[in-house]
Amino acid sequence: MAAFDYAKTRTTAERLIAKFGQQALLRRITNSGADYDPFQTSQDFACVLVDLDYTQAHISNTLIQRGDRMIYLSTAGLSIAPMLEDRLLIAGVEHAIFDVLPLSPGGITVLWQLQVRQ
């Protein structure tokens, strides 16, 4: 039996997110300098994502709050993996990342699912 081709699935996810998604920026903030007087710099990485609402079933009795957004973030052209410390700029509005779940069957990241909050 042939192994499933997750690289092809990743290509399909990238194509669909590009078709139905929107451009955004993933902002990485780094600290440098002395611990007592750090200097922060930010670097933005262009990305493509699909922005979705959570359903009431997701919100009820969970850590997900009303107003949180579920994001499907494409791997296409993105040279970094998102982290909780990063920020996501959607239509110029900065969102904090509260959860990062990679969809990585077979060791290949197909996409990232993020929970973000404004």
Can you lay out the helices and strands and say which pair or pack?
Layout lengths: L5 H15 L1 E11 L6 E15 L2 H4 L9 E6 L12 E4 L2 E11 L7 E7 L1
Antiparallel strand pairs: 1-2, 1-4, 2-3, 3-6, 4-5, 5-6
3D architecture notes:
- The structure is a single chain.
- The termini are far apart.
- The model has no long low-confidence stretch (mean pLDDT 91).
- Strands 1-2-3-6-5-4 form a 6-stranded antiparallel barrel.
- A hairpin with a 7-residue loop joins strand 5 and strand 6.
- The protein has helices at 6-20, 56-59; strands at 22-32, 39-53, 69-74, 87-90, 93-103, 111-117.
- The protein has 118 residues and is of the alpha+beta class.
Q: Which class do the helix and strand fractions yield?
A: alpha+beta
CATH class: Mainly Beta
End-to-end C-alpha gap:
47 Å
pLDDT < 50 runs, ≥5 residues: none
Cα-atom Rg, whole angstroms?
16 Å
Indicate the proportion of strand residues. Answer: over 45%
Number of helices: 2
N-to-C SSE series?
HEEHEEEE
Q: In CATH terms, what is the architecture?
A: Beta Barrel
What fold name goes in the CATH topology slot?
A: Thrombin, subunit H
Helix share bin: 10-25%
Output the strand order for the largest sheet.
Answer: 1-2-3-6-5-4
Largest sheet: 6 strands, antiparallel, barrel
Shape: globular
Total discrete domains: 1
Averaging pLDDT over every residue, what do you get? 91
Count of DSSP strands: 6
